[in-house]
Amino acid sequence: MPILDDRTLEFLSHSPEQTRRLGVRLGEMLHGGHLVCLAGDLGSGKTTLTQGIGRGWGALDSVTSPTFVIVNEYHRADAEVLFHVDAFRLATVEEANAMGLAEVLTQGRVVIIEWPAHIDSIVPPDHLRVGMGWVDDSRRSLRFEAGGPVHLRLLGEFRKAAFGG
What we know:
By secondary structure, the protein is of the alpha/beta class. The chain has helices at residues 16-27, 46-57, 93-98, 101-104, 149-163; strands spanning 8-13, 35-40, 71-75, 81-86, 110-114, 127-134, 140-147.
C-alpha cells in the first residue's frame, strides 16, 4: 500500500472479493455529501467496488450496474438513499442536467459515479476519485485521490480503517 501523500493512496487488489471487501470498508464510512468517482476501463472493477460500497453503506438491495438506466437508487433502513450513476452512455452534460444529475450532486446525498469524465463539468471538485486499472485477469490497481477537505478527511479515515495507518 504505497502512500504517495495524504491525498493519495494506491492499492493492488488480488481478487474481485478483495475489491468488494475494500468497498465494504469505504461504504461503512460514507454519509450524506460524499461523492466517489470511479474511473477505469471496462472490466476494471468499478461495479465490483460499488457492490462492496453498497453492502458496507447498508443498501437493502444488491448493487447492479446502472449502464442502461444511468442511475440506480439504493435505500437503507433509515430511509437514506445512495445514488449510483453510470455516465458512460451520457453524450453531453446537457443530457446529465436534463436528468437532474446536477441537483443530485448538490443534495448532500451519497453518490457514486462511474465514468465521471463524461460529466466532468458538473462534478464538484471536492470528491474522492478512484482510478482503477487492469493488472491481469484477477488483479486490479486502485488509486484513491482526495479532492477537497471533506474527501481528504474521508481518505484519511479510510486509510486507517482499511490498512491501519
